[in-house]
Each structure stands twice: as C-alpha cells, then as structure tokens.
C-alpha cells in the first residue's frame, strides 16, 4: 500500500477548513491528479475531515490524510502521512506529538498505512512555520544536510520541501534532490501556474498543489497537465 506514493507526480492538498463546492471537488477529483491529500496546519477538525473524506470517497483516486492534529485523525484513509519538522528546535513537532499519538492510538494504528515525512519548512510567513517555530533562514547546504538526515540517518521515505504560500527556490529544490539516495522528494508551495508546476516537477519527484485550488480552480487544474503530460 505504502508503495503507491512512488508513482505520484501530482497531488492536490485539500484543506478541510476551507469550503469547496461539489462541482469544484468533482473537477479536482476527475482532473487526472494522482491523489488527494487532506490536511492543513490549522483549523483541521475530526468533523471537517470526515466530511471531506466522505465526499472524496465518491471518486476512485487515492485519498490520504496528512495528520497535523491528533483530534482530527479519521479512520478510513488509504494512507496516513506523518510530518516530522526537521528544521525546528521545538521537538514537539519532531517527536512529542508523535509519542502522544502512539500512546493514544496504540494497537489501533495501521502501521502498514503510515508514511513518515521529513519536513523542511522554508517560508517564514506560512502558518506552519509560525506554528512549529521553523528556522527558515537556512542555506541550501543546510537544507541539503537536513534532507540527508531524513534520507540516510532516519531512512524516511519522504522529504517534503514545504514553501506553503510562496513559490520556492528551485535551486534549493535541485540541491536537495541531488543529496537524496532513497527518499522521495515532495515539493509544495505557491504553485499558481502550469509553468511553475512544470518547473517544480522537473526539480522534484512529486508536486503538491494547495491553495490555488481555492483561489483559481482553472489554473489549479492546468497544473495537472503541466506535470503529468508536459
Ligand atoms: C488510528 C489511526 C487511523 C491512526 C493513524 C495515524 C496515526 C495517529 C499514526 C501514528 C501516531 C503518530 C506518529 C501521530 C503523529 C500525530 C501528529 C499530530 C504529529 C505532528 C505533525 C506536525 C509536525 C504538525 C505540524 C503542522 C504541519 C507540518 C502540518 C502539515 C500540513 C501543512 C504544512 C499544511 C500547510 O499549511 P496550510 O494550512 O495549508 O497553510 P496556509 O494557511 O498557508 O495555506
Ligand atoms: O498551498 P500551497 O502554497 O500550494 O502549498 C502546498 C502545500 O505544500 C501546503 O502544505
Ligand atoms: Mg493551505
């Protein structure tokens, strides 16, 4: 099951806190994207997550939860993606929430569906950077070093370069990619045009498209073709 992520080139990240009409959700789910990731850094609840999962379940594509709040863990997703923020000194976001999650859910955790993500958060203005106290002002070399900690020391299956809200430095993305041996590189942040999506796809393994879905659906849909049929 976990291996399904290896074939993903394009993923839409939907935020349960935000409204989306049935027509818009239909267009997103029928767009040809490889998967729907459900998550956000704030305002995610059990109820709004169940609601979104049940709506996406009408479609055939994989639907995975990126867990950001223990109160909002919902059974029934295809996979559970677990962020571990590497570039923070607050170990809440690397270990503590995770310890709490394991103590709380114990034997109910479907480990065969759990995928850890080594997050490197690089936009200081993003809600996720503020929440986690991420040290975003780091060099390319430091970003690559964090990536190697994830890839080589921790053997995480995913490194996630997170620029949520702003289009990031593709030089940094390429530098990080060159440093990886086994981990899959997710890039997310500020993709608003097909050109940006294509650029990010050329520099990473998997492109995550978030906010533009809510701001300009047509442009969001165009990113799928740009990534999957360039
Ligand atoms: C029983 C069952 C089905 C269990 C499966 C799942 C499970 C509980 C597994 C094992 C236990 C475990 C290890 C749990 C960890 C739980 C946890 C809460 C970990 C902390 C995760 C974390 C570091 C959160 C911080 C925020 C973060 C990185 C969120 C990711 C999403 C993100 C970056 C969104 C972007 O933000 P957005 O809101 O879009 O920003 P904008 O407002 O700017 O758009
Ligand atoms: O919302 P955007 O800026 O597209 O970012 C996507 C994703 O990386 C957010 O976690
Ligand atoms: Mg968002």
Keyword list:
binds SN-glycerol-1-phosphate; TIM Barrel; 230 residues; 8 strands; alpha/beta; binds ligand L4TTDIOY; binds magnesium ion; magnesium ion binding
Polypeptide structure, described:
The chain has 230 residues and is of the alpha/beta class. It has a single domain, classed as FMN-linked oxidoreductases (TIM Barrel, Alpha-Beta Barrel), CATH 3.20.20.390. Helix content is 37%, strand content 18%. An 8-stranded parallel beta barrel has the order 1-2-3-4-5-6-7-8, surrounded by 5 helices. The two termini are 28 Å apart. The mean pLDDT is 97. Bound molecules: ligand L4TTDIOY, SN-glycerol-1-phosphate (1GP) and magnesium ion (MG). Magnesium ion binds next to loops.
Give the topology, please.
Blueprint: E1 10-14, H1 22-29, E2 35-38, H2 46-56, E3 63-66, E4 79-85, H3 96-105, E5 114-121, H4 127-132, H5 140-153, E6 158-162, H6 170-179, E7 184-188, H7 194-203, E8 206-209, H8 212-215, H9 217-228
Parallel strand pairs: 1-2, 1-8, 2-3, 3-4, 4-5, 5-6, 6-7, 7-8
Bound molecules: ligand L4TTDIOY, SN-glycerol-1-phosphate (1GP) and magnesium ion (MG).
Residues 15, 40, 210-211 line the site of magnesium ion (MG).
């Amino acid at each position: 099951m976990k291996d399904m992520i290896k074939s993903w080139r394009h993923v839409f990240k939907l935020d349960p806190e935000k409204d989306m009409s049935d027509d818009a959700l239909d267009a997103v789910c029928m767009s040809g994207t490889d998967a729907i990731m459900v998550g956000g850094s704030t305002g995610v609840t059990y109820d709004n997550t169940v609601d979104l999962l049940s709506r996406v379940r009408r479609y055939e594509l994989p639907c995975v939860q990126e867990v950001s709040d223990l109160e909002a863990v919902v059974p029934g997703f295809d996979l559970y993606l677990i962020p571990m923020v590497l570039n923070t000194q607050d170990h809440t976001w690397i270990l503590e929430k995770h310890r709490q999650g394991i103590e709380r859910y114990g034997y109910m955790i479907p480990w065969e569906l759990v995928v850890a993500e080594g997050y490197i958060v690089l936009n200081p203005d993003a809600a996720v950077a503020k929440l986690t106290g991420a040290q975003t002002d780091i060099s390319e070399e430091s970003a690559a070093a964090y990536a190697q900690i994830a890839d080589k020391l921790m053997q995480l299956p995913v490194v996630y370069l997170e620029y949520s809200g702003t289009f990031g430095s593709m030089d940094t993305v390429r530098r990080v990619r060159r440093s990886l041996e086994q981990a899959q590189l997710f890039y997310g942040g500020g993709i608003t045009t097909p050109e940006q999506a294509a650029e990010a796809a050329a520099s990473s393994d998997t492109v995550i498209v978030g906010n533009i879905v809510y701001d300009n659906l047509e442009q969001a849909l165009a990113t799928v073709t740009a990534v999957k049929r360039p």
